[in-house]
Amino acid sequence: MSDTDTVSDHIVRILLDWGVDTVFGLPGDGINGLVEAFRKASGQIRYVHFRHEETGALAACAYAKFTGRLGVCF
């Protein structure tokens, strides 16, 4: 942790602690900080971009079902 860590950096760290290695999502103005935190952790967590919220949620569900890991979307 550093003095310049953001809430988004902490969220990504928690996801990594939970064993999350892939997240699915749609970037936007309200969550650009989270997208930046995923970019900074790109060697540890993979971000998969989607153009529609429902498709990202479906991908996260399918990922969880077929891998047995947590499926995360935003």
Instruction: Report how far the terminal alpha carbons are from each other.
Output: 24 Å
Query: How many domains make up the 3D coordinates?
Result: 1
Our count of helices gives 3
Percent range of helical residues: 40-55%
Radius of gyration: 12 Å
Order of the strands making up the biggest sheet = 2-1-3
CATH architecture descriptor text: 3-Layer(aba) Sandwich
Count of β-strands: 3
Overall shape = globular
Helix-strand category: alpha/beta
User: So what's the CATH class?
Assistant: Alpha Beta
The CATH superfamily turns out to be: Thiamin diphosphate (ThDP)-binding fold, Pyr/PP domains
Mean pLDDT: 92
Task: Give a written overview of the molecule.
The longest helix has 15 residues, at 53-67. This protein is of the alpha/beta class and 74 residues long. It contains three helices and three strands. Strands 2-1-3 form a three-stranded parallel sheet, with helices on both faces. Helix 1 crosses helix 2 (32-40). The protein has helices at 7-17, 32-40, 53-67, and strands spanning 22-25, 46-49, 72-73.
Name its key features:
single chain, 74 residues, alpha/beta, Rossmann fold, three-stranded parallel sheet, 47% helix
